[in-house]
């Protein structure tokens, strides 16, 4: 009955399989919490999706920016790149991409919140749940294509709320792309460096701003931050697709880490 949170897989199927061996993952009773970015930039994105679909009852996976990118190809807004193309050539593409489309942006229990990039610190849990739901409802609706078209043509970095696409676009950016925020709560989407190297005093890592949610946040997305923990957060993107490590965090009293070196 163990729960393991696993970092950004990004098509690194072989590393993922090795990690499941290492943690002795048992599909009759264990659950995986995945921080998203299941696909893209790694060579076996199709294999990752097919495997997860085959064990979908054991999987809680939140959407990451690369998963959204795959959905943009599904809705024919962006051409699939060479990493995503095998998915679109596969006979099961509809089934696995419809599964991906239905993944949430946020998952939580009493102690932890799971999301790809983090939780906007100015939102309490109720607001974060509502904002995630708004995006999920749009992505599952017939407006999904129109929304993703809007999302990719408008870089919304502050919480404008004039219309539902603007609201949802900002929220989607926070859940899937956030790293640094400006002091007035705007997203900075350019700076990707490790916070230790940041000299711009106007940019603050989102998790250094006091959060209105009490649970510990488990997230990925920030490969330059790497494996990171403090009293409030766990970042488990240890850059497997960049030749580094894939990380699992066993969610129990001991919070034990397991890592596999990239198998490429
Ligand atoms: Mn990401």
Structural notes for this entry:
It is a single chain. By secondary structure, the chain is α/β, with parallel strands linked by helices. It has a single domain, classed as 4-Layer Sandwich (Purple Acid Phosphatase, chain A, domain 2), CATH 3.60.21. The protein is 31% helix and 17% strand. It contains 8 helices and 13 strands. The strands form 3 sheets. A 5-stranded mixed beta sheet has the order 3-2-1-12-13, with helices on one face. Strands 4-5-9-11-10 form a 5-stranded mixed beta sheet, with no helix packed on it. A hairpin with a 3-residue loop joins strand 4 and strand 5. Helix 6 crosses helix 8. The relative contact order is 0.18. The model has no long low-confidence stretch (mean pLDDT 97). The protein binds manganese (II) ion. The site of manganese (II) ion (MN) has 6 residues, from helix 3.
């Amino acid at each position: 009955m163990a729960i393991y949170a696993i970092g950004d897989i990004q098509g690194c199927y072989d590393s993922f399989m090795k990690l499941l061996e290492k943690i002795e993952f048992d599909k009759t009773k264990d659950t995986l919490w995945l921080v998203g970015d299941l696909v893209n930039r790694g060579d076996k994105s199709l294999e990752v999706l097919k495997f997860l679909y085959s064990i979908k009852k054991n999987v809680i996976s939140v959407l990451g920016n690369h998963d959204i990118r795959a959905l943009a190809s599904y809705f024919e807004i962006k051409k699939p790149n060479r990493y995503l193309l095998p998915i679109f050539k596969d006979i099961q593409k509809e089934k696995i991409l419809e599964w991906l489309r239905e993944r949430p942006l946020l998952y939580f229990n009493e102690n932890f919140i799971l999301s790809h990039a983090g939780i906007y610190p100015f939102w309490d849990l109720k607001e974060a749940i509502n904002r995630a739901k708004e995006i999920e409802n749009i992505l599952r609706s017939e407006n999904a294509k129109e929304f993703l078209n809007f999302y990719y043509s408008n870089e919304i970095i502050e919480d404008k709320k004039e219309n539902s696409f603007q609201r949802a676009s900002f929220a989607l950016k926070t859940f899937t792309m956030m790293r640094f925020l400006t002091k007035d709560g705007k997203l900075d989407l350019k700076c990707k460096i490790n916070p230790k190297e940041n000299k711009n005093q106007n940019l603050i890592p989102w998790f250094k701003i006091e959060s209105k949610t009490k649970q510990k946040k488990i997230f990925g997305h920030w490969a330059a931050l790497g494996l990171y923990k403090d009293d409030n957060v766990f970042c488990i993107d240890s850059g497997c697709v960049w030749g580094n490590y894939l990380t699992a965090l066993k969610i129990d009293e001991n919070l034990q880490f397991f890592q596999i070196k990239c198998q490429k």
